[in-house]
């Protein structure tokens, strides 16, 4: 069954499909994060980013061939497209730089604040009105980030700064993605991957290290996993409203804790759990208020899907 045929199914089936695809996409993202943390322990961020991007084209190549290259060239709002590519690439680079030194769950906690940043910045970038309830949730969410940072001299570390900058870059790139809804999934992910490929090459020049066949394969597989995750999440958001999918986004943190314990022996402390809980509750409230304001209507009805 094709995606266009799936759109003829009852809405409840579409939403269920979106939820299941979101869960799978989050698992793939968490797996990508764990693999990335393992690889940057031995190789530079630039090298991992470069080879990972090559691997992503294993997934993208058939989709580009099906879509045609003309859509890759004829872009809506090229300036915003370029800014989104830059920020999405910075997001990935900052993430890998952060997990070199911080536990996986710690870095993911900062990224879970993405909805809070999006709500705060949507007023500036999208001209959306943000009511006092959501501003209060934004402030509470930022308090959760501060708690998760474990305020001390360590909170000023470069690794923590990388995680915060990466999560903000992620949030702004998501906002720009909302501005570019008319661009196909394949085009968005392809240019995002090209940007990561270019930045990875620049960063890797000064610190390229020989790798075993197994590690080369792992870096390429990282690209396959990351590319698949991006496409799954994008597809899920076209099948079900973002406000419906929002709670399932936080399974990323659960997988981060599990993978951190199993593969790296990182056991989160109570302060991280408290901060994470505050961030999650604030994020869910923001999504709830958005749904109320939208009148309970779906905020992304599938149409003209490529």
TrEMBL record:
Give every EamA domain span: 17-148, 159-286
Spell out where the chain crosses the membrane.
12-32, 38-61, 82-102, 108-126, 135-152, 158-176, 188-208, 214-233, 245-264, 270-287
The record's InterPro entries line, in alphabetical order, gives:
EamA_dom (IPR000620), EmrE-like (IPR037185)
Per the record, its GO cellular-component terms are:
membrane
Q: According to its UniProt record, what is one Pfam family this protein matches?
A: EamA
Alphabetical UniProt keywords:
Membrane, Transmembrane, Transmembrane helix
**Which named protein is this?**
EamA family transporter
Which organism does this record belong to? Pseudaminobacter soli (ex Li et al. 2025)
């Amino acid at each position: 069954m094709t995606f266009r045929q799936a759109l003829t199914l009852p809405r409840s089936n579409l939403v269920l499909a979106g939820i299941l695809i979101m869960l799978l996409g989050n698992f793939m993202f968490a797996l990508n994060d764990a693999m990335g943390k393992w690889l940057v322990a031995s190789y530079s961020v630039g090298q991992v980013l470069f080879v990972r991007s090559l691997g992503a084209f294993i997934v993208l190549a058939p989709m580009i061939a099906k879509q045609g290259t003309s859509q890759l060239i004829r872009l809506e709002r090229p300036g915003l497209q370029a800014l989104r590519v830059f920020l999405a690439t910075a997001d990935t680079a900052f993430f890998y730089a952060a997990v070199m030194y911080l536990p996986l769950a710690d870095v993911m906690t900062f990224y879970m604040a993405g909805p809070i940043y999006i709500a705060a910045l949507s007023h500036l970038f999208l001209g959306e009105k943000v009511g006092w309830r959501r501003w209060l949730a934004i402030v509470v969410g930022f308090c959760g980030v501060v708690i998760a940072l474990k305020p001390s001299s360590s909170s000023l570390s470069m690794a923590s700064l990388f995680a915060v900058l990466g999560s903000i870059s992620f949030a702004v790139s998501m906002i720009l993605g909302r501005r570019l809804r008319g661009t196909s999934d394949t085009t968005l992910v392809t240019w995002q991957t090209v940007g990561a490929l270019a930045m990875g090459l620049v960063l890797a020049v000064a610190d390229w290290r020989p790798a075993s066949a197994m590690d080369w394969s792992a870096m390429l597989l990282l690209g396959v996993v990351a590319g698949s995750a991006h496409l799954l999440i994008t597809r899920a958001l076209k099948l079900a409203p973002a406000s419906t999918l929002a709670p399932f986004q936080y399974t990323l943190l659960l997988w981060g804790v599990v993978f951190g314990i199993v593969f790296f022996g990182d056991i989160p402390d109570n302060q991280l759990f408290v901060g994470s809980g505050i961030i999650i509750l604030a994020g869910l409230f923001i999504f709830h208020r958005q749904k109320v304001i939208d009148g309970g209507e779906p905020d992304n009805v599938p149409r003209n899907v490529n």
